[in-house]
Amino acid sequence: MTEKLRVLIGREEIAGKVAELAAQISQDYRDSNPLLLGVLKGSFIFLSDLVRALTIPVEIDFVRLASYGAGTETSGKVRVVHGLRRSIRGRHVIVVEDITDTGLTIQHLTGYLKRRHPASVKLCALFDKPQRRRVPVSIDYLGFTLPDAFVVGYGLDFNEKFRHLPELYVLEQEA
Ligand code: PRP
Prior knowledge:
The chain contains three helices and nine strands; from the N terminus they run E-H-E-H-E-E-E-H-E-E-E-E. The protein has helices spanning 11-28, 44-53, 104-114, and strands at residues 2-9, 35-40, 59-67, 78-82, 92-100, 120-128, 141-145, 151-152, 168-174. Helix 1 (11-28) packs across helix 2. The longest helix has 18 residues, at 11-28.
C-alpha cells in the first residue's frame, strides 16, 4: 500500500479562517483574559497560529486525552492522560481542538473541566466531521466542516506521520 496525499484545504484558506476565529474570540473575550486549553497533540499547530492572531491577552495550557485501543477507530473510552496542574475555578476557558469527530473526547473533557468550576467553557474547533458524531457537541467557534474522509496535516496525523504539513490533506491508500 502506498499513501497518497491530496490537498483538501490550502494554507491561505486555513490562515484566513484562523484570522476570522481569532477576531471573533478577541471581540467576545475582550475583558476576560480567557484560558485557551489546547487538546494535545493535534491542536498544537492550530493553537499556536490562533493565539498569534488574537488581539487580547490570554493564558495557555494543555491537556492530553486518549481513547483506549489502537487503530483509527476510537474505543469509546476516553481518559485524561495529562490533566490540569492549576486551578481553573472562575476562569473563562476556551477548549481548542484540531478536529471534532465522534465528540467523545470533548464530551469527556467538558465533564472533567466542569467539575473544576470554571466561569464558562466554550469549544473552538478548526475542523468538524459531523457525520461521525456519536454524542451531541456544540461547537462555539468552528472553522471548517469536513466530509467523512481521513485527513492529515496541520497537526493531524496518521500513525504520528504528517502532523507537520502546513495544509490539510485527504489521505488515500493505494494498492
Ligand atoms: C484527535 C483530535 C481530537 C480527537 C477528536 O485526537 O486531536 O482531540 O481525536 O476525536 P473524537 O471527537 O472522536 O473524540 P487523537 O486521539 O487522535 O490524539 P492526537 O491529537 O494526539 O493525535
